[in-house]
Amino acid sequence: MYFNSKTIFALIFVLVFSFFILKIKIIKKVGNKFNLFFIVLILFINFGNDLRRALKYDFERYFNIPFIKFHKEVFANNEILVESLKMRNSYMQIANSHSKTKALENIKNIVLIIGESSRRSAYQDYGQLLNTTPNLLSIENKIIYSDVIAPYSSTNPVMSVMLNFANLDNLSERKFYENLDIVNLFKLANYKTFWISNQDYVSEWGNNAASIGIMSDFAYFSNQYISSSETLAYAKYDEVLLPILNDLKLSDNNFISIHLLGNHGNYKKRYPKTFAKFSESDIKENTKDKKSISEYYNSILYTDYIIYSIYERFKDDDTLIIYLSDHAESLYDDKTKSLLGHGVSDKIIADIPFIILYSNSFKTNHKELLDKLILSKDLAFMSDDLIHLLCDIAGIKIAEFEESRSPINKKYNKFRIRLFANEINYDNFLKLD
Ligand SMILES: [Zn+2]
Question: Which of 4, 79, 243, 362 has a CA 20 to 30 Å removed from the CA of 21?
Answer without folding.
Answer: 4
